[in-house]
Design brief:
Blueprint lengths: L3 E4 L6 E4 L9 H14 L1 E4 L6 H11 L11 E2 L2 E8 L2 E2 L2 E2 L20 E10 L7 E5 H6 L3 H7 L3 E4 L2 H5 L12 H6 L3 E4 L1 E4 L4 E4 L6 E4 L4 H15 L5 E4 L6 E5 L3 E5 L10 E8 L5
Parallel strand pairs: 2-3
Antiparallel strand pairs: 1-2, 3-16, 4-5, 5-18, 6-7, 8-16, 8-18, 9-15, 9-17, 10-11, 10-14, 12-13
The protein binds N-oxalylglycine (OGA) and manganese (II) ion.
The site of N-oxalylglycine has 11 residues, from strand 8, strand 17 and strand 18.
Length: 283
Protein backbone atom coordinates (compact mmCIF):
# COMPACT_ATOMS: atom_id res chain seq x y z
CA UNK A 1 0.00 0.00 0.00
CA UNK A 2 1.38 3.34 -0.98
CA UNK A 3 -1.81 5.37 -1.22
CA UNK A 4 -3.65 6.86 1.71
CA UNK A 5 -7.39 6.69 1.08
CA UNK A 6 -9.76 8.61 3.32
CA UNK A 7 -13.48 8.15 2.60
CA UNK A 8 -15.68 11.11 3.55
CA UNK A 9 -19.17 11.12 5.12
CA UNK A 10 -21.04 10.95 1.82
CA UNK A 11 -22.03 7.67 0.13
CA UNK A 12 -19.39 8.31 -2.56
CA UNK A 13 -16.03 10.04 -2.45
CA UNK A 14 -12.61 9.52 -0.89
CA UNK A 15 -9.51 11.69 -0.69
CA UNK A 16 -6.35 10.07 -1.97
CA UNK A 17 -2.88 11.23 -0.96
CA UNK A 18 0.59 9.76 -1.16
CA UNK A 19 0.93 9.79 -4.93
CA UNK A 20 2.38 12.29 -7.39
CA UNK A 21 0.31 11.93 -10.57
CA UNK A 22 2.67 14.26 -12.42
CA UNK A 23 5.43 11.67 -12.53
CA UNK A 24 4.83 8.28 -14.01
CA UNK A 25 2.59 6.09 -11.93
CA UNK A 26 3.71 2.47 -11.69
CA UNK A 27 1.46 -0.43 -12.57
CA UNK A 28 0.85 -1.42 -8.95
CA UNK A 29 -0.25 2.08 -8.01
CA UNK A 30 -2.49 2.32 -11.09
CA UNK A 31 -4.15 -0.92 -9.96
CA UNK A 32 -4.65 0.46 -6.46
CA UNK A 33 -6.22 3.59 -7.96
CA UNK A 34 -8.55 1.48 -10.10
CA UNK A 35 -9.65 -0.61 -7.10
CA UNK A 36 -10.19 2.48 -4.94
CA UNK A 37 -12.21 4.06 -7.75
CA UNK A 38 -14.48 1.02 -8.03
CA UNK A 39 -15.02 1.02 -4.28
CA UNK A 40 -15.45 4.75 -3.56
CA UNK A 41 -16.77 5.86 -7.00
CA UNK A 42 -15.23 9.35 -6.69
CA UNK A 43 -11.57 9.96 -5.87
CA UNK A 44 -10.09 13.36 -5.05
CA UNK A 45 -6.33 13.83 -5.36
CA UNK A 46 -5.60 17.30 -3.95
CA UNK A 47 -2.78 19.55 -5.07
CA UNK A 48 -1.56 17.69 -8.15
CA UNK A 49 0.83 19.28 -10.60
CA UNK A 50 0.57 17.41 -13.87
CA UNK A 51 0.95 18.08 -17.56
CA UNK A 52 -1.75 17.10 -20.08
CA UNK A 53 0.70 14.41 -21.27
CA UNK A 54 0.92 12.93 -17.77
CA UNK A 55 -2.87 13.02 -17.53
CA UNK A 56 -3.19 11.09 -20.80
CA UNK A 57 -0.59 8.58 -19.60
CA UNK A 58 -2.51 7.92 -16.40
CA UNK A 59 -5.74 7.66 -18.39
CA UNK A 60 -4.13 5.01 -20.63
CA UNK A 61 -3.11 3.03 -17.56
CA UNK A 62 -6.77 2.76 -16.64
CA UNK A 63 -7.95 1.78 -20.12
CA UNK A 64 -8.72 3.12 -23.57
CA UNK A 65 -8.86 6.95 -23.69
CA UNK A 66 -11.95 8.44 -25.32
CA UNK A 67 -12.13 11.21 -27.88
CA UNK A 68 -15.12 13.54 -27.48
CA UNK A 69 -17.53 14.20 -30.35
CA UNK A 70 -17.10 17.96 -29.76
CA UNK A 71 -13.63 18.01 -31.35
CA UNK A 72 -13.40 21.84 -31.34
CA UNK A 73 -12.90 21.67 -27.60
CA UNK A 74 -9.86 19.40 -27.44
CA UNK A 75 -6.22 20.45 -26.89
CA UNK A 76 -4.32 21.01 -30.15
CA UNK A 77 -2.66 17.73 -31.12
CA UNK A 78 -4.15 15.92 -28.12
CA UNK A 79 -7.64 14.76 -29.09
CA UNK A 80 -7.97 12.80 -25.82
CA UNK A 81 -7.84 15.99 -23.76
CA UNK A 82 -11.13 17.85 -23.66
CA UNK A 83 -11.27 21.41 -22.33
CA UNK A 84 -13.97 22.31 -19.83
CA UNK A 85 -13.76 26.06 -19.55
CA UNK A 86 -15.58 29.37 -19.52
CA UNK A 87 -12.54 31.21 -20.93
CA UNK A 88 -13.01 33.00 -24.24
CA UNK A 89 -10.36 33.93 -26.79
CA UNK A 90 -11.33 36.45 -29.50
CA UNK A 91 -14.94 36.07 -28.37
CA UNK A 92 -14.96 32.34 -28.92
CA UNK A 93 -15.07 29.79 -26.10
CA UNK A 94 -11.82 27.78 -25.80
CA UNK A 95 -13.65 24.82 -24.32
CA UNK A 96 -17.05 23.46 -23.45
CA UNK A 97 -18.90 26.24 -21.62
CA UNK A 98 -21.60 25.19 -19.16
CA UNK A 99 -20.31 21.62 -19.34
CA UNK A 100 -22.35 19.16 -17.38
CA UNK A 101 -24.62 21.64 -15.59
CA UNK A 102 -27.36 19.04 -15.39
CA UNK A 103 -27.43 15.55 -13.87
CA UNK A 104 -25.81 13.06 -16.22
CA UNK A 105 -23.45 10.15 -16.56
CA UNK A 106 -20.75 10.72 -19.16
CA UNK A 107 -21.47 9.42 -22.63
CA UNK A 108 -24.38 7.24 -21.46
CA UNK A 109 -25.72 7.95 -24.97
CA UNK A 110 -23.05 5.69 -26.53
CA UNK A 111 -22.95 1.90 -26.85
CA UNK A 112 -19.89 1.63 -24.58
CA UNK A 113 -20.28 4.56 -22.20
CA UNK A 114 -17.45 6.08 -20.20
CA UNK A 115 -16.03 4.10 -17.28
CA UNK A 116 -13.85 6.73 -15.61
CA UNK A 117 -13.72 10.47 -16.20
CA UNK A 118 -11.09 12.71 -14.70
CA UNK A 119 -10.77 16.46 -14.38
CA UNK A 120 -7.67 18.41 -13.48
CA UNK A 121 -8.49 21.85 -12.10
CA UNK A 122 -6.07 24.33 -13.67
CA UNK A 123 -7.87 27.44 -12.42
CA UNK A 124 -11.16 27.42 -10.56
CA UNK A 125 -13.17 30.03 -8.65
CA UNK A 126 -12.81 29.60 -4.89
CA UNK A 127 -15.94 28.36 -3.21
CA UNK A 128 -18.06 28.27 -6.36
CA UNK A 129 -18.61 26.04 -9.40
CA UNK A 130 -18.82 22.87 -7.33
CA UNK A 131 -19.49 19.48 -8.88
CA UNK A 132 -22.06 17.23 -7.25
CA UNK A 133 -21.95 13.45 -7.45
CA UNK A 134 -24.81 11.06 -6.69
CA UNK A 135 -24.42 7.44 -5.63
CA UNK A 136 -26.44 5.34 -8.05
CA UNK A 137 -25.69 2.22 -5.99
CA UNK A 138 -27.29 3.67 -2.89
CA UNK A 139 -30.08 5.19 -5.01
CA UNK A 140 -30.93 1.69 -6.25
CA UNK A 141 -30.53 0.03 -2.85
CA UNK A 142 -32.89 2.48 -1.14
CA UNK A 143 -35.70 2.27 -3.73
CA UNK A 144 -39.05 0.97 -2.46
CA UNK A 145 -39.59 -2.70 -3.35
CA UNK A 146 -42.47 -1.98 -5.76
CA UNK A 147 -40.35 0.47 -7.76
CA UNK A 148 -37.48 -2.03 -7.93
CA UNK A 149 -39.97 -4.55 -9.25
CA UNK A 150 -41.40 -2.12 -11.81
CA UNK A 151 -37.98 -1.44 -13.36
CA UNK A 152 -36.71 -5.00 -13.11
CA UNK A 153 -35.30 -6.06 -16.50
CA UNK A 154 -36.27 -2.72 -18.13
CA UNK A 155 -34.17 -0.89 -20.68
CA UNK A 156 -34.04 2.82 -21.41
CA UNK A 157 -33.19 4.97 -24.43
CA UNK A 158 -30.27 7.39 -24.04
CA UNK A 159 -29.88 10.21 -26.55
CA UNK A 160 -27.33 13.06 -26.60
CA UNK A 161 -29.71 15.29 -28.57
CA UNK A 162 -32.04 15.35 -25.53
CA UNK A 163 -29.62 17.69 -23.73
CA UNK A 164 -29.60 20.04 -26.73
CA UNK A 165 -33.43 20.09 -26.81
CA UNK A 166 -33.61 20.90 -23.11
CA UNK A 167 -30.66 22.38 -21.16
CA UNK A 168 -28.83 23.82 -24.17
CA UNK A 169 -31.98 24.87 -26.08
CA UNK A 170 -31.23 28.60 -25.67
CA UNK A 171 -27.43 28.40 -25.44
CA UNK A 172 -25.65 29.66 -28.59
CA UNK A 173 -22.31 28.40 -27.19
CA UNK A 174 -23.54 24.83 -27.18
CA UNK A 175 -24.80 23.41 -30.44
CA UNK A 176 -24.58 20.02 -32.09
CA UNK A 177 -24.23 19.83 -35.87
CA UNK A 178 -26.23 17.31 -37.89
CA UNK A 179 -22.98 15.47 -38.55
CA UNK A 180 -22.11 15.35 -34.84
CA UNK A 181 -25.62 14.16 -33.99
CA UNK A 182 -25.31 11.43 -36.62
CA UNK A 183 -22.18 10.16 -34.85
CA UNK A 184 -24.14 9.56 -31.66
CA UNK A 185 -27.44 7.87 -32.52
CA UNK A 186 -29.70 6.92 -29.58
CA UNK A 187 -28.85 3.69 -27.71
CA UNK A 188 -30.56 1.41 -25.21
CA UNK A 189 -29.11 0.34 -21.85
CA UNK A 190 -30.46 -1.58 -18.85
CA UNK A 191 -32.10 0.69 -16.24
CA UNK A 192 -30.18 -1.16 -13.55
CA UNK A 193 -26.60 -2.19 -14.28
CA UNK A 194 -23.96 -4.16 -12.41
CA UNK A 195 -20.56 -2.77 -11.53
CA UNK A 196 -18.65 -5.81 -12.74
CA UNK A 197 -15.75 -5.62 -10.26
CA UNK A 198 -17.91 -5.47 -7.12
CA UNK A 199 -21.17 -7.05 -8.41
CA UNK A 200 -23.05 -4.07 -6.94
CA UNK A 201 -26.21 -3.01 -8.75
CA UNK A 202 -26.67 0.64 -9.71
CA UNK A 203 -29.39 2.71 -11.33
CA UNK A 204 -28.26 3.68 -14.80
CA UNK A 205 -30.57 6.46 -15.99
CA UNK A 206 -29.97 10.21 -15.90
CA UNK A 207 -31.98 13.39 -16.60
CA UNK A 208 -29.50 14.68 -19.19
CA UNK A 209 -29.62 11.86 -21.68
CA UNK A 210 -32.31 9.30 -20.75
CA UNK A 211 -35.33 9.86 -22.95
CA UNK A 212 -37.65 7.05 -21.95
CA UNK A 213 -38.04 3.58 -20.53
CA UNK A 214 -38.73 1.09 -23.29
CA UNK A 215 -42.12 -0.63 -23.14
CA UNK A 216 -43.77 1.94 -20.85
CA UNK A 217 -46.28 4.54 -22.01
CA UNK A 218 -44.94 8.11 -22.18
CA UNK A 219 -46.60 9.09 -18.92
CA UNK A 220 -45.53 6.04 -16.93
CA UNK A 221 -42.00 6.39 -18.28
CA UNK A 222 -41.84 10.07 -17.26
CA UNK A 223 -43.24 9.36 -13.79
CA UNK A 224 -40.91 6.43 -13.23
CA UNK A 225 -37.83 8.31 -14.39
CA UNK A 226 -38.73 11.32 -12.25
CA UNK A 227 -39.14 9.07 -9.20
CA UNK A 228 -35.75 7.47 -9.85
CA UNK A 229 -34.09 10.87 -10.30
CA UNK A 230 -35.65 12.17 -7.08
CA UNK A 231 -34.30 9.17 -5.20
CA UNK A 232 -30.84 9.61 -6.70
CA UNK A 233 -30.54 13.34 -6.05
CA UNK A 234 -31.77 13.39 -2.44
CA UNK A 235 -29.35 15.47 -0.37
CA UNK A 236 -28.08 12.54 1.68
CA UNK A 237 -27.17 10.65 -1.49
CA UNK A 238 -24.69 13.27 -2.71
CA UNK A 239 -21.07 14.29 -2.44
CA UNK A 240 -20.39 17.91 -3.38
CA UNK A 241 -16.85 18.62 -4.50
CA UNK A 242 -15.57 22.12 -3.73
CA UNK A 243 -12.75 22.66 -6.19
CA UNK A 244 -9.32 24.07 -5.48
CA UNK A 245 -6.63 24.73 -8.05
CA UNK A 246 -4.63 21.54 -8.61
CA UNK A 247 -7.41 19.13 -7.62
CA UNK A 248 -7.51 16.01 -9.73
CA UNK A 249 -10.88 14.28 -9.47
CA UNK A 250 -11.76 10.94 -10.97
CA UNK A 251 -15.18 9.23 -10.98
CA UNK A 252 -16.77 5.96 -12.07
CA UNK A 253 -19.69 6.87 -14.34
CA UNK A 254 -21.16 3.39 -14.10
CA UNK A 255 -22.23 3.96 -10.50
CA UNK A 256 -22.59 7.75 -10.23
CA UNK A 257 -24.11 10.69 -12.00
CA UNK A 258 -22.83 14.23 -11.65
CA UNK A 259 -23.76 17.85 -12.15
CA UNK A 260 -21.67 21.02 -12.24
CA UNK A 261 -23.07 24.11 -10.50
CA UNK A 262 -23.23 27.35 -12.48
CA UNK A 263 -23.09 29.57 -9.39
CA UNK A 264 -20.01 31.55 -10.44
CA UNK A 265 -19.69 34.98 -12.05
CA UNK A 266 -18.76 35.68 -15.69
CA UNK A 267 -15.47 37.15 -14.52
CA UNK A 268 -14.52 34.00 -12.60
CA UNK A 269 -12.20 31.70 -14.52
CA UNK A 270 -13.13 28.03 -14.38
CA UNK A 271 -10.72 26.03 -16.50
CA UNK A 272 -10.22 22.27 -16.24
CA UNK A 273 -8.77 19.55 -18.43
CA UNK A 274 -10.65 16.35 -18.84
CA UNK A 275 -9.79 12.86 -20.00
CA UNK A 276 -11.88 9.73 -19.86
CA UNK A 277 -11.69 5.97 -20.25
CA UNK A 278 -14.05 3.93 -22.36
CA UNK A 279 -16.20 1.44 -20.50
CA UNK A 280 -17.87 -1.86 -21.34
CA UNK A 281 -21.33 -2.52 -22.71
CA UNK A 282 -23.58 -2.09 -19.62
CA UNK A 283 -25.03 -5.32 -18.21
C1 LIG B 1 -17.55 16.62 -17.35
C2 LIG B 1 -18.50 17.44 -16.59
C3 LIG B 1 -18.45 18.90 -14.78
C4 LIG B 1 -17.68 20.05 -14.25
O1 LIG B 1 -16.45 17.09 -17.59
O2 LIG B 1 -17.91 15.48 -17.67
O3 LIG B 1 -19.64 17.10 -16.49
O4 LIG B 1 -17.66 20.20 -13.04
N1 LIG B 1 -17.98 18.50 -15.99
O5 LIG B 1 -17.11 20.82 -15.02
MN1 LIG C 1 -19.86 15.04 -17.32
Amino acid sequence: MTLTIRPGDAPVGAEVTGVDLGSSVDVGVADEIRMALCEHAVLVFPDQEMSPEAQVMLTRQLGEPEVHVLSDFTLPGMPEVFIVSNVRKDGKPVGAVNAGQYWHSDLSYTARPTFASMLHAKEVPTGRGETMFASMVRAYETLPADVKERIDGCRAVHDYTLAYETVFADNPDRTLTTEQAAEVPPVEHPVVRTQVETRRMALYVNPGFTRLIVGMGAEESRETLDALFAQATAADNLYTHRWRDGDFVMWDNRVTMHKALSNYADGDVRHLLRTSVKGEVPV
